């Protein structure tokens, strides 16, 4: 019984040695020095200080800045204007095996406008407070991610890492106004075809807790306008079938449906992205008068608009039936039209989602890479709104939404958007790990070696 004890100790020592080696290997690049850290932060600040707010982003400055970063990293670069004045900046780190499909990391350069007076620090200042919080429009959405891609490449290059697959970065101009001149054009271009992309990463959301959030799909918008007509009449008269009465019956029905969906979220049975949301966007009725509206008249027309968001897993046929039969029935003198009706299926007719299990090697690799960088991961989610990722999923490409921000309040499009600098730096480590894993991935069966032989 003594001997095994001895060899146990030896085993333990060896095991410890192996573990320390492993730790050494996984943290292949040392933490950046104080000087290097402040350089990283000031590059981020520089990007944040460029005014790329819609409706008139300074694309000249942002393009110049991105190209100068690319230049300092010896990346190949190309500026494509599918629409004049709306530059898509493409950067490439060529892989050692050009026969392997590539990786695309997407980010948008534009940001939403800010109400300057409601910010504690100016939205273009990129001021850092005593807690290390960097205040700027775009600090979460999503200049952080665009710069983190570049900083991760900088670190990998200086460590001597060589990717097998080519890595592309796309900086697109107009996500905040729909992405039609940027990501959508790119997705359907020969430029993208020639890039031979296998997987796209795009933006996600910050997490108020310690778990990173990964998005495998998003809800698609249906913008519905319903219109009621009815006999006009004196404001003192009670009668059936007025336009307003017809419209209110629909609104009651829509509000009941909204509550049923919201209850599922409140009860914790479904996440926000998993239910159909419907919110009133406008109400339009009444007969205008010089002082407001005519008060003793029941109008002959009334309209309401709704922003509906649908997860790709929803039964859209039953929703369409509900709209035609309950929300805008012809029997109640109602009509409806869609101002926008985005499909929940891709070009190949499949539900618009990226597999979030081990049937998708990119999903598994991403989870492993985040864990390797000491990150925790929450349950896969459906993005509650829209991002440019939908254009790539539409093609049938896998696309995952991810913005590495934990313990961070969600301030996208809000006043006082900020990101803590320590969190920003952590995100660079995470992308370093992801880029390494993604660009090194060789699918089983390549190079004549099957999984069985391995
Ligand atoms: Zn965004």
Automatic annotation (TrEMBL):
Gene Ontology biological process terms in this record: amino acid metabolic process
Chief location: cytoplasm
Keywords of this entry: Cytoplasm, Hydrolase, Metal-binding, Signal, Zinc
Positions annotated as active site in the UniProt record: 110, 175
E.C. numbers: 3.5.1.14
Cellular localization per UniProt: Cytoplasm
Pfam families, A to Z: M20_dimer, Peptidase_M20
Enzyme class: hydrolase
Cofactor stoichiometry and binding remark: Binds 2 Zn(2+) ions per subunit.
Entry protein name: N-acyl-aliphatic-L-amino acid amidohydrolase
Organism of this sequence: Durio zibethinus
Gene name as annotated: LOC111282920
